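Why predict the complex rather than its parts? Because the way molecules touch one another can change local conformation, and only a joint prediction can capture that. The input here totals 287 residues.
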Amino acid sequence: MSENKTEISVEALRAGDREEFSRLVDTYSGPIYRLALKMLGIPTDAEDVLQNTFLKAFQHLKEFEGRSSLSTWLYRIASNEALMLLRKHRPEITLSDAAPEDDDNSDYSPAQFTDWCCLPEDEFLSSESQAALDRAVQHLPETQRIVFVLRDIEGLSIQETSEALNLSETAVKTRLLRARLRLREELSTYYGERLDKRSKE
Amino acid sequence: MIEHEHSKCRSLLGSLSDFVDGTLGEELCEAIERHVAECQNCHVVVDTLRKTISLYHESAAEAGEVPVAVRERLFRTLNLDDYIRH
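Output of the joint prediction:
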């Protein structure tokens, strides 16, 4: 998440400075909206998450102690909101360290060995390709998806991701690896087909 | 292709994220590099994993704008109407 040219003043926010709060919203609404969209895949749901994140941030500003950065704190609220909305649809989702998927090693061995890196650059820039990337993220289990979105799309460090999700760094790393391997498999299928198509043209 | 012990591929799998992020210890890093140099499948896995991550990095750099109507509704919800036109 890119910080604004001038630092947001936490003191001004706490003092109830509306203009400073509007600067906070403008600085972070882009990344928060993107996170919500990647997590939920539906613009109206993403908008709900965006609004609830800043409503909660406003309500709880006084409790912000500055132990993590302002952006990590906002990501934490947004991640919770996104997962809560997903849970409404699928109540069995949990985000505890001991999620059963962490013990399951069977599904993660690579099965596709097509080298699609050599595809021409325009292949990766198409809107169809972008849709395939988004679709693949949507297919990840929610607990892996949130880790992947924070780390590899929003660019948080492992430590920041673990702070935002209240997970151990080990759990973050495990989920990240699984998410990345799963996405690689799915993209290998998609780009492998594109490679086939091109060779037949 | 040179025949080799494929159990090695599996044992290195757990270190792949740290390897592509450049945060893996020197010794393990060299072990992976040696293995990848002689195992075609692992070579492809490493390359396509790197490409996968970089595609998502690039897609994030392009997106990230809130649509104007969404921003307006957000500002109204937060009672920040006075600051909509900044």
